[in-house]
Sequence to fold (231 residues):
Amino acid sequence: MLTVENVDLHYGAAQVLWDVGLGAEAGKVTCVMGRNGVGKSSLLRAIVGQHPISAGKVMWQGKDISTLPPFERARAGIAYVPQGREIFPLLTVKENLETGFATLPRGQRKVMDEVFTLFPVLSSMLSRRGGDLSGGQQQQLAIGRALVTRPKLLILDEPTEGIQPSIIKDIGRAIAYLRDQGTMAILLVEQYFEFARDLADTFTVMDRGSVVVAGNKADMVESDVRRHLTV
Fold:
């Protein structure tokens, strides 16, 4: 569904991605791993259109979307849960979820029951402001908001960062459930090795803006991957 081909990316004169490639398929989780500052979030921003690429292509369902603006990519079925969650702190949980309606035709503008099945805490906090939620609850809200858009590709940037272990397990179960439905591709950026390993079908490891190790989970050599995660 998603193919990133030979992508370079610059911030001004500084190049941060070199010849990066990866793919994501429906019914599978592709994990991108690496230390802080190696270009993982920049890669996601390139995929969702938040920063232009300097070379290469971003292909989505056979179409080159490299120059499409972010809202067009969202309408095409790409949902993004950014690092830091970026929920609206002064809006209620219900209002935060409803911001996902922007990409949908009027007939589909409802929060699916699946969101509350995956994250039951949200249904009991609909009138609470987003900024009053704990970090873990905000992360669940951010994922729920992305799911409201009915995505075909769900992109998650370090969803376990700063989250308590019990909610990390809930998020892991939700990702596994969504993968197993077989209709959604999931691209997960993660530094927590065990979480990524347990969910990954394919993996890509980055270092200094380039892909250094990639393959299927069955071919993963744990020591090779961990070497690129330790400081």
Residues 46 and 52 are 6 Å apart (CA to CA). The radius of gyration is 17 Å. The chain has one domain: 2-90+152-227.
